[in-house]
Amino acid sequence: MTATPQRKGILVTGGAGYIGSHTVLQLRERGERVVVLDDLSTGFRQAVLDAPLVVGDVADTALVARVLREHDVDTVLHFAAALSVPESVRDPLKYYGNNTAGTRALLAACTAHGVSQFVFSSTAAVYGIPDGGRASEEHPTRPINPYGRSKLVTEWMLRDVEAATSAGSGAAALRHVALRYFNVAGAEGTGRIGQSRRDAFHLVHVAAEHVAGKRDHVAIFGTDYPTPDGTAVRDYLHVEDLARAHLDALDYLRRGGASTTLNVGYGHGYSVREVLAAVERASGKPLTLREGPRRAGDPPELVSEASAIRRVLGWQPQRDDLDLIVRSAIEWERKLPGIGWR
Ligand code: UFG
Questions:
Q1: Which superfamily does CATH assign the domain made up of 9-185+235-264 to?
Q2: How far apart are CA 82 and CA 229, in angstroms?
Q3: Does any ligand 1 atom lie closer than 6 A to the CB of residue 123?
Q4: Which residue among 1, 162, 217, 325 is the one 20 to 30 A from 152 at the CA level?
């Protein structure tokens, strides 16, 4: 029997956060060598389970250089970012700092070290308000908030770095996959990790907190949208399917795939009221709802054209089921107080 060659290391920035930790879990389950870099500003030490964790900032180039060297890293999965749209409007420099400048510093360390593969957490927010509510990867990018712009600039930076490195700037070519996430929600099925933050603002998370008794109502932001029931429509995606897309992107890059930018969504949408109805079905009791005005910066409808990722990466989502998504979010939320995440 021939021995399997030892794989190179994978650096996961933001691996103690929500989506990062689900991806770390899947990578480790299939035997990948992972090291997590996270400043624990919003992530949790416990979320990495027993994966190696370095606590620090992606913009600390000396620290990143050491981690890349010591763990023999050839691939970076870059999740670390600030991600609240309303906060980005209030504090844009935090977003250009953490997201854009932070990634610039990380890329400098990556090119110096010869990292050759990079998977980037981008966002559907790069599209802004897409025509007809649906966006394919070719749709014009017209972000309407600093969060979306901070991520779009990073996509441009990745393309420029790849062009420069493959044109023989001296550094090894750095190929990338940029994944534009739609609305991620839910938690993995074993109850070990899930979503947690002190300032929950995503719809499914907020509704799960309400069911678990942490808040007395759920606000509906806008009931006068030009949608079938007047509330905003989004493409909700189970976090385990999203995590899996990163493993598929990694495999694609390892096969020599060219740099690409792909939507990650199921390609169909649900309104706020439909999501809340699913939460009521899952919890078995009515929610206390308060109808209010639209939230600034929200597009009426944002749904993915989702065929490219299936074709290019071979991504096969397994959990395209709103009831399952909200049930897993509620189960996790009920469990969270007993887990003692700090
Ligand atoms: N909503 C409510 N009540 C709440 C929370 C949300 O009615 O308590 C509504 C929002 O107004 C929106 C929908 O539910 O219409 C979804 O809102 P989320 O906050 O869950 O998610 P967003 O669509 O605003 O944000 C997501 C990602 C962002 C990304 C954005 C792109 O989380 O990272 O999509 O539009 F930028």
A1: NAD(P)-binding Rossmann-like Domain (3.40.50.720)
A2: 32
A3: yes
A4: 325
